[in-house]
Design goal:
Blueprint lengths: L1 H28 L2 H27 L2 H6 L4 H17 L6 H37 L26
Helix pairs in contact: 1-2, 1-4, 2-5, 4-5
Length: 156
């Protein structure tokens, strides 16, 4: 449980730390002009991706109540963050770490959306069963325009 709570708190801090790690890695290990361009492009992308994943994973009420992530979310976040950390070393395996980070980010958004949709569906069904009827699509009531007065034209 401590690991799940630690990842819950770390996911928001990582949104600021990981882009800074890319800048620090470029300053220490350097990668030429192409490396600087990649850092300038990647740092905001990493920031937005990490914030998006953090908000998507923490949007579920069960996660907010427990203040702890579940196992699949931890796995995806760990893979994404390890990929970004590996890119920050700017070594010969940078492309592989970048591929790992990109695949983990795509998988994380898919997983987060699926878990959130499942959670919302369960809450809607629970709410509808509390009213004593199953959920159904709303139907339009019949149109009632009130009284009609018909005036016949004169034939003169």
């Amino acid at each position: 449980m401590a690991l799940r709570r630690a990842f819950f708190a770390w996911q928001f801090a990582a949104a600021a730390v990981l882009p800074l790690w890319l800048l620090l890695g470029y300053a220490v290990w350097g990668a030429g002009v192409g490396g600087f361009l990649s850092v300038v492009l990647l740092a905001p992308i990493v920031l937005v991706a990490e914030l998006g994943l953090a908000l998507l994973f923490s949007a579920r009420s069960a996660v907010r109540r427990a203040r702890a992530l579940d196992g699949p979310a931890i796995g995806v976040l760990a893979a994404f963050q390890l990929g970004v950390i590996g890119v920050g070393f700017f070594g010969p395996a940078t492309a592989w770490f970048g591929l790992l980070a990109a695949a983990a980010a795509i998988g994380g958004f898919w997983l987060g959306g699926t878990l959130l949709a499942r959670d919302v569906r369960a809450r809607v069904q629970q709410t509808m069963s509390a009213f004593g009827r199953p959920p159904q699509t709303p139907q339009r009531p019949p149109l009632d325009a009130g009284e009609y007065v018909v005036i016949k034209p004169s034939t003169r």
